[in-house]
Amino acid sequence: MPKLSNIKLKVCGLRDNIPEVVALKPDFAGFIFYNKSPRYAGDTLLKDYFNDFPESTMKVGVFVNHPVERVLETARQFNLDFVQLHGDESFAECLHLKANGLGVIKVFSGNKAIDRDRLIEYAEVVDYYLFDTRLKSYGGNGVAFDWAQLKGLDLPKPIILSGGLTLENIRQLEELDDLDIYAIDINSQFEIRPGMKNTELIKQLKEQMQ
Ligand SMILES: O=C(O)c1ccccc1NCC(=O)[C@H](O)[C@H](O)COP(=O)(O)O
């Protein structure tokens, strides 16, 4: 595991206090376009605001089994840099999105054994693999991912680690060698209510990551 200071930060599920969170300069900011999520942001986001986003923060749209043309349409509307796909999106769908100029983060949920061959198959059409805990909901469950599963995986694309990350367990990550994590993704453990992030906790994390 690289030092925390070398790891990028993605804050996911923004909606109700976007400017305050973006002022903290996360490397990625995630917006949920899945309308069954309590963090669904599709109806409230201001498209103009997205044109003024700081260049250092990548805008990520989160989707679950949406038709690919709808993902593209949403990405154009909100000027997204990346799409994060939490469902059963195929290689062909990822390829189509990439061919249209989008960065692709494909989510692989960790409630079953990791299928390395499948990950390798997706390598040419994804920018990052994101590992998350899947329970009843597709994401934002707040349950820690069993990161020991990633040990020694040696994948061709970088890993974003997600799933129930907190100030406390992120500290433990550094003790695990042999884990090559590019970024961490925080969500429900850093919010006041779904969609309203706790900026004080995020500031503490940023300090911890320096
Ligand atoms: O956050 C949601 O409500 C959500 C719903 C459906 C698909 C994805 C969703 N979140 C995506 C994320 O990237 C979360 O950060 C990730 O699932 C981890 O969340 P948490 O376990 O709360 O830290």
UniProtKB/TrEMBL annotation:
Highest taxon of source: Bacteria
Domain N-(5'phosphoribosyl) anthranilate isomerase (PRAI): 12-205
Pathway(s) per entry: Amino-acid biosynthesis; L-tryptophan biosynthesis; L-tryptophan from chorismate: step 3/5
EC number, as in UniProt: 5.3.1.24
Any one Gene Ontology molecular-function term assigned to this protein's record: isomerase activity
Xref: CDD domains: PRAI
Keywords: Amino-acid biosynthesis, Aromatic amino acid biosynthesis, Isomerase, Tryptophan biosynthesis
Reactions performed catalytically: N-(5-phospho-beta-D-ribosyl)anthranilate = 1-(2-carboxyphenylamino)-1-deoxy-D-ribulose 5-phosphate
Family the UniProt entry places it in: Belongs to the TrpF family.
PANTHER family attached to this UniProt entry: N-(5'-PHOSPHORIBOSYL)ANTHRANILATE ISOMERASE
Protein name: N-(5'-phosphoribosyl)anthranilate isomerase
Top-level taxonomy: Bacteria, Pseudomonadati, Bacteroidota, Cytophagia, Cytophagales
Gene it is expressed from: trpF
